[in-house]
Amino acid sequence: MILLDPQARLVIGHRGNRAHAPENTLESLLEAVALGVDAVEFDLHVARDGALVVIHDATLDRTTDGRGPVAARSVAELKRLDAGARFTRDAGRSFPWRGRGVAIPTFDEVIEALPRDLPCIIELKTPTATELVKAAIARHGIARRVIVAGFDPLATRPLRGAGFALGACTPDVAQLVLPALARRRLGPQAFQALCIPPRWHGIPGPVAALARALRGSGTAIHVWTINDPAQALRLWSDGVQGIISDDPGSILAARRANPPKQ
Length: 262
Description:
The mean pLDDT is 96. Helix 5 (153-156) links the parallel strand 5 and strand 6. This protein starts with 9 loop residues before the first strand and ends in a 5-residue tail after the last helix. With 262 residues, the protein is of the alpha/beta class. The radius of gyration is 18 Å and the shape is globular. Helix content is 29%, strand content 16%. The strands form 2 sheets. Strands 1, 2, 3, 4, 5, 6, 7, 10 and 11 form a 9-stranded mixed sheet that branches. Strands 8-9 form a two-stranded antiparallel sheet.
């Protein structure tokens, strides 16, 4: 799978084309596809009636015209909300997607709308999604093109050995930091990818050290959220495989303009 290719220089749409369309919606994800991304990343919560829904926050307030917990609403109730209501690119002076029928999609809707061969990073925001996503991946036959990730070990560790690639949870990453800073080479891990930020609570992370330590281990590194093309180029030079970006079009342009040196 390309998401695990150690030689890859991937551009991954973060919640789709988030800088230009409402995050985690079909509209945003399909815009990213149209730009030519190598993969997309999106988030999962669980509706009251047990359906996997694609939304980042545990509550509806930031991204929709609704209020309260996602888990308190059925899919039918969630579908009546406007998932484009709060999207703005000018600090609230305008809301170009409001009232255009943008909805919270289900996991099934996203997988059915995306190209059949497009790799996906699926982030679990709650352990209640764990067994549901395992079943959904099997139902859609997409195990060979997904990474399932999440901060919470209760969400991801039960999926070890489930037949698809896993991202490291926060404790998994923390255990690698000191060995990487000590310039130790690390072998195969119980996960296949690190999906990490360049800074954690304001502190720069040892991304280059981790890339060096994990080289040849079978573990890929994807860094979020990178919207500066120059930073993306530096990270690729450091040995990172994937750039997860809100503005994938700008990162794709930088990659085209700066092919790897032979």
